[in-house]
Automatic annotation (TrEMBL):
Part of the tripartite ATP-independent periplasmic (TRAP) transport system. This is TRAP transporter small permease protein. It comes from Psychromarinibacter sediminicola. Keywords: Cell inner membrane, Cell membrane, Membrane, Transmembrane, Transmembrane helix, Transport. Belongs to the TRAP transporter small permease family. It is found in: Cell inner membrane; Cell membrane. GO terms for molecular function: transmembrane transporter activity.
């Protein structure tokens, strides 16, 4: 884990625990998708017929799982970075870059949350479902929206941490 995880504020620690639990839940969803897919492959091999709708469960489950990892990556400082450019930077500059990254994540998270919320409303309004299992598509949006809301909170906590680090030194 990054230094920010160990040197963070109380807000950071709380958000980190919440994001960790949320990411683990996303991992459980992803594991369930894998189990369904393996069961479908085995059923296809043994009975010459896979589980109906397994690809629909995969679509929704993987989307929810992928979004659930975003807040954890943000708060734990585990997003992809170009360390070659920052290897010799001072703590101030590293904090400044962290602050800028948190601002970008905050803006992107807020915009995605805003637009996907309206996307979910459209899915509910038009009662859009998957073809075989008739799963309402807005359910997948709802899971992703929770992750995006947590991403906004994690980005804000990261921003507070970066500002604290900048002015502490």
């Amino acid at each position: 884990m990054s230094d920010a995880v160990h040197n963070g504020t109380r807000l950071h620690g709380l958000v980190l625990r919440i994001c960790t639990a949320w990411a683990i839940l996303g991992g459980v969803v992803l594991l369930a998708v894998v189990v369904v897919n393996v069961a479908s492959v085995i059923a296809a091999a043994v009975f010459n017929k896979g589980l109906p709708g397994d690809f629909e469960l995969t679509e929704v489950g993987v989307a929810i799982a992928a979004f659930s990892f975003l807040p954890y990556c943000q708060i734990a400082g585990l997003n992809v970075t170009a360390d070659i450019f920052t290897a010799r930077a001072s703590k101030f500059w590293l904090s400044l870059f962290s602050m800028l990254g948190a601002i970008v994540a905050l803006i992107f998270g807020a915009v995605l949350l805003w637009r996907m919320y309206y996307g979910m409303l459209d899915q509910r309004t038009y009662d859009t479902t998957t073809a075989l299992l008739q799963i309402p598509l807005w359910w997948g949006y709802a899971g992703c929206l929770l992750s995006l809301a947590l991403l906004v909170v994690a980005s804000f906590a990261s921003l507070v941490d970066a500002l604290t680090d900048m002015f502490r030194r």
